[in-house]
Amino acid sequence: MATILIIEDDAHGANITRRVLERAGHEVWHTTDGITGVKMLTQRPIDLVLLDMGLPDLDGHTIMALIKRVPDNPPVVAVTASTDPAVERRAMSYGCQAYITKPINTRTFADQIAPYIRPRSRTATPAPSEKSSTVF
């Protein structure tokens, strides 16, 4: 169906999310840090990013700024443990399309993110010599 990148430092939470999305028919990629996540966006077409806003290497604002610099950047949904409305407002102001609090509901999560998945009308993955250069 879609290719989804999870940028999440909690391995257990990422594995649960991966299983839910794979059961729904999605291809799932995962990384534990923001820098690697942004690099992955330049290496393969991604239809949606699920971003933990509290990563150890970069804050959510910085990661969103880097994602916006990637050509043909995908939609981003913040998936984070904070229930603080101020954190949600900040994530939305950074450019996230939605905000979902953890722990995810494994029964409804795939449906929650479905509206934000970019349609598959894009071109194929570029050949290695055509891939974008690093964006930072």
Summarize the SSE layout with pairings.
Layout lengths: L2 E5 L3 H13 L3 E5 L2 H8 L6 E4 L8 H10 L6 E5 L4 H10 L3 E4 L7 H5 L23
Parallel strand pairs: 1-2, 1-3, 3-4, 4-5
Keywords:
136 residues; alpha/beta; Rossmann fold; five-stranded parallel beta sheet; 5 helices; globular
Compact description:
By secondary structure, the protein is an alpha/beta fold. The protein contains five helices and five strands; from the N terminus they run E-H-E-H-E-H-E-H-E-H.
Explained architecture:
- There is one protein chain.
- This protein has 136 residues and is α/β, with parallel strands linked by helices.
- The chain has a single domain (3-119, 124-128), classed as Response regulator (Rossmann fold).
- It has five helices and five strands.
- It has helices at 11-23, 34-41, 60-69, 85-94, 109-113, and strands at residues 3-7, 27-31, 48-51, 76-80, 98-101.
- It has a five-stranded parallel sheet with strand order 2-1-3-4-5, with helices on both faces.
- Helix 3 (60-69) links the parallel strand 3 (48-51) and strand 4.
- The protein is globular and about 30 Å long.
- 27% of the residues are buried.
- The model is unreliable at 122-136 (pLDDT under 50).
- Helical proportion, percent range: 25-40%
**Beta-strand content estimate:** 15-25%
CATH architecture: 3-Layer(aba) Sandwich
The number of helical segments is: 5
What do the pLDDT scores average to? 89
Structural class: alpha/beta
Q: So, the CATH homologous superfamily?
A: Response regulator
| Helix and strand pattern | EHEHEHEHEH
Question: Gap between N and C termini, in Å?
Answer: 30 Å
- Strands side by side in the biggest sheet: 2-1-3-4-5
| Weakly predicted, low-confidence segments | 122-136
Question: Assembly type of the shown chains?
Answer: single chain
The coarse silhouette is: globular
**Gyration radius from CA atoms, angstroms:** 14 Å
Largest sheet: 5 strands, parallel
